[in-house]
Write a structure and sequence with these properties.
This protein is an alpha/beta fold and 283 residues long. It contains eleven helices and seven strands. It has a seven-stranded mixed beta sheet with strand order 3-2-1-4-5-7-6, with helices on both faces. Helix 3 crosses helix 7 and helix 4 crosses helix 6. The two termini are 15 Å apart. The structure holds S-adenosylmethionine. The site of S-adenosylmethionine has 21 residues, from loops.
């Protein structure tokens, strides 16, 4: 991969997502470089798709086909809307911007529109204006984040949305579970897995499972998929938290590097700070 950074600042993720990869981007890019030549690019836990956009921005994907998927339908709606008709998404966001207020926010939050473009613009608007800027749903799949009090939220970042739409030209974007990547890949492809992280404590583990439904059984299933991809000649990169469980799961067939990431998710200020994460690879 060419590491020549193109002198452009876009595209960047147009949604702020839980587990967004901002800080891990440099070590991840070094790994992609180390992977050498690859065929197509797959991100089966897309979220904000930070690595995909970064690779595209620096010219590391060229015209390669990319496969972005996630089980979150609202998220995929936003990607599809930006991919298929960015002009209409921008128009909808400008309309939201003109009406923006606490009342408008709750009105938009309370109703899911029928059309794809409207649904996509709704998610981008809520993501830009909600408390903490994080998309979060309750157990019934409803977006339940309160209004965020921002002075001047950037509701319609037109330049970035257009660049993201361009980046998505060669991408297949779908709602599907991670295991289906096995049906899409070809030998020589590159897959980046960024699953919900294995929690660092037992209490956190319980809460996390309640929220994401991604427990240790799913982590085991994922490790089996990563192993099957290895056997198929596919290059795999995976990020996760550094827990004994994860290290053991990948110890036999993968290389594991520790990286430090600053996290700001802990509500207790004294517990914020650097946490160890792992980057796992099969090459
Ligand atoms: C850690 S986030 C990914 C963050 C992303 N790399 C970014 O840069 O923003 C994990 C994602 O996995 C998705 N997810 C959870 N369970 C899944 C499953 N079984 N299959 C596919 N995606 C899943 C969630 O919806 C979430 O978007």
């Amino acid at each position: 991969m060419s590491r020549r950074r193109r002198n452009v600042s876009v595209p960047r993720p147009f949604l702020k997502w839980v587990g967004g990869k901002g800080q891990l981007l440099d070590p991840l890019l070094r790994l992609v470089e180390r992977a050498g030549e690859f065929g197509r690019y797959h991100e089966p836990f897309a979220g904000g798709a930070a690595l995909f956009f970064e690779l595209y921005r620096i010219g590391g994907l060229g015209r390669k086909h990319a496969y972005l998927s996630d089980t979150n339908e609202r998220l995929i709606d936003a990607f599809l809307a930006v991919q298929q008709n960015v002009d209409r998404v921008i128009n909808r966001l400008k309309a939201h911007r003109a009406l923006h207020s606490k009342d408008h926010y709750y009105a938009v939050r309370g109703e899911v529109p029928d059309g794809l473009i409207e649904r996509g613009a709704r998610i981008i608007y809520l993501n830009r204006t909600c408390y903490n800027g994080l998309f979060r749903e309750n157990s019934k799949g409803l977006f339940n984040v309160p209004f965020g009090r921002y002075e001047n939220p950037l509701i319609c970042d037109e330049e970035n949305l257009r660049a993201a739409s361009m980046a998505l030209t060669h991408a297949k974007v779908e709602v599907r579970p991670f295991g289906s990547v096995l049906e899409e890949v070809e030998r020589g492809d590159l897959v980046y897995f960024d699953p919900p992280y294995d929690p660092l404590s037992r209490t956190a583990s319980f809460t996390a499972y309640e929220k994401t439904g991604f427990g240790r059984d799913k982590q085991q299933e994922l490790a089996a998929v990563a192993k099957a991809l290895t056997d198929m000649g596919v290059k795999v990169i995976l990020s996760n938290s550094m827990t004994p469980f994860i290290c053991k799961l990948y110890a036999d067939h993968f290389m594991i590097d520790e990286v430090l990431a600053r996290r700001h998710v802990n509500s207790r200020a004294d517990r914020r700070g650097a946490v160890s994460e792992v980057l796992i690879r099969n090459f």
